[in-house]
């Protein structure tokens, strides 16, 4: 459709459209930096670093992210991991028992889980044999209640990025929302789709500090979209969904850009070595292209090889139950020492 006619309000659930969000103490009085006495939120007044409620809008962290990604603060929503961000999308746009979403297996399992939790039909359209979105079939699966199409690129568990052309076709031809999950974008040399949120009012890009940024334990997911979409999500998010410790730690890390880059370079170097190693293993039948910090391989007997590695103290992921992934194993790239240990064991099997 002509995206100049796009009206987000037609996609929002009716109850969300009319919702008045909870107004927290920290929403009603925003500090301008002057010395004030805060007696508004029933906190314990004795300082211990976290006795105050956190900033519900995470201003400091968003300011840095906005600058790094060349977007406005109003284009950003932060959540307790991407999982919370994705759940907010369901709750804002998908009417239980009525609406549906489209996902493209083999892919990240949470889309389906969240669809089930929110009682939303999940229409599955398999990727092609080369793990690309099948645009024609996707568009055939769309009906007037299809609210969101989830594209995971680079895709988990396959590792590849989807072709720009196919993603563009979906964005152009689908009138609902398109979520591009970029959890692994920092390991890829492809451009992020973030800058395209200015072009496509139906585009939502999600990223996370759980992978390249090495902060899976603090739970921080990021959503980039139009101001209108972010405003809707802000209405329904829990006021203090990103805690103070997470905000602090995330801020330190995103400002330490060089360190993150160095670690990512190391991981990419190790990925290259691990691909070479795997290519020398007799029971490895195929190594799939990867733009992520993991490698999917097809082996002779995935269950057997998985158990053998487990016996030797190495835990990988057996992805064989996923469609198009028969007899596949997924290896996350570890430290040089971990990868050396893995290499030694693989060569013994
Ligand atoms: C790991 C992963 C995430 C991360 O989720 P968080 O909740 O932010 O830790 C998101 N999407 C995909 C595809 C992933 O593999």
Question: Mind explaining what this structure looks like?
Answer:
- The chain is α/β, with parallel strands linked by helices.
- It folds into two domains: 3-255, 3-Layer(aba) Sandwich (Aspartate Aminotransferase, domain 2), CATH 3.40.640.10; 258-348, Aspartate Aminotransferase, domain 1 (Alpha-Beta Complex), CATH 3.90.1150.
- Helices cover 36% and strands 15% of the residues.
- The protein contains twelve helices and eleven strands.
- The chain has helices at 14-17, 25-28, 59-69, 81-93, 110-117, 135-141, 164-173, 227-236, 244-255, 257-279, 302-311, 336-348, and strands spanning 76-79, 100-103, 121-124, 146-152, 177-181, 203-208, 221-224, 284-287, 294-299, 317-318, 328-332.
- Strands 1-7-6-5-4-2-3 form a seven-stranded mixed β-sheet, with helices on both faces. It has a four-stranded antiparallel β-sheet with strand order 8-9-11-10, covered by helices on one side.
- Helix 7 (164-173) links the parallel strand 4 and strand 5 (177-181).
- It is globular and about 70 Å long.
- The termini are far apart.
- The site of pyridoxal-5'-phosphate (PLP) has 13 residues, from helix 4.
Instruction: Give the number of helices.
Output: 12
- CATH fold-level name of the largest domain: Aspartate Aminotransferase, domain 2
Strand content: 5-15%
SSE sequence, one letter per element: HHHEHEHEHEHEEEHHHEEHEEH
Main attributes?
349 residues, alpha/beta, Aspartate Aminotransferase, domain 2, Aspartate Aminotransferase, domain 1, four-stranded antiparallel β-sheet, 12 helices, binds pyridoxal-5'-phosphate, pyridoxal phosphate binding, histidinol-phosphate transaminase activity, histidine biosynthesis
